[in-house]
Design a protein that fits this description.
single chain, 229 residues, six-stranded mixed sheet, two-stranded antiparallel ribbon, 38% helix, binds iron/sulfur cluster
Length: 229
């Protein structure tokens, strides 16, 4: 069983993913703050009966689902993912939303692109039409007030159809942008297949070539490929 966030992390440092599997995951300050902001964003959400939600989606009703687990599959692998939000309308997914805390909100990193694309692919593998599907990532600096972050998330979920594709600045100091694109099956299929090679045991994990990543890595003192001493 694979999580999209884990597959996406291979594009940050695959060796780190490997060490997490071998040695156990280490909770970092960034992860702890990320959990807090996600909890804040979901605090108004009501628990739902998923059977009723599926019926409402089939009836073509709009549904906004926050932090909801979805299954999917590719080749011999089962996937389970929890996107920050999905908007359904007209019987199909219209928007998948993810939120990232980053020191460079203007830049979208490969692991972020791949993760949200996998959520889209999971929708497709469930049999949904994805012709209208958009992918939105809210990238913001760590200092963004969690309440403001929650409001920006709500705005993106309700206004994504009138936002420009590409980057839109939503707040300055601290910086918050939305990166919006249309989903396409082919966009990251090659990346996904490359990532699956590791889980199939076809190759050794690939370490990063960026020493800055090693500097902030919790495994820097045990990793044989660490670029820092
Ligand atoms: S020390 Fe560097 S190469 Fe090793 S797992 Fe961490 S980030 Fe990857």
């Amino acid at each position: 069983m694979l999580a999209p966030s884990k597959v996406a992390s291979q594009f940050y440092c695959e060796k780190k993913v490997h060490l997490e599997q071998e040695l156990g995951e280490v909770e970092t300050e960034t992860m702890r703050r990320g959990t807090e902001t996600h909890e804040k964003a979901a605090e108004d959400a009501e628990p739902v009966d998923m059977d009723e939600v599926w019926r409402a989606i089939e009836r073509g009703e709009r549904q906004e689902l926050l932090e909801t687990m979805f299954p999917g599959e590719i080749a011999e692998f089962a996937l389970f993912g929890i996107p920050d939000a999905i908007v359904f309308d007209d019987g199909k997914p219209q928007l998948i939303f993810d939120r990232k805390t980053t020191s460079i909100p203007t830049r979208l990193f490969q692991n972020q692109r791949v993760q949200i694309w996998i959520y889209g692919y999971m929708m497709e593998s469930l049999g949904f039409e994805t012709d209208d599907l958009q992918l939105a990532i809210l990238s913001h600096e760590q200092e963004l007030d969690p309440e403001l972050g929650k409001q920006l998330q709500k705005r993106i979920l309700s206004e994504h159809t009138v936002l420009e594709l590409g980057k839109t600045t939503l707040h300055k100091e601290p910086t918050a942008l939305v990166h919006l694109c249309e989903y396409a099956t082919d966009d990251h299929m090659d990346d996904f297949q490359w990532a699956l090679g590791y889980w199939r045991g076809e190759r050794d994990p690939v370490p990063t070539e960026n020493a800055a990543k090693c500097q902030s890595c919790p495994y820097k003192n045990t990793c044989s490929d660490s670029l820092v001493s």
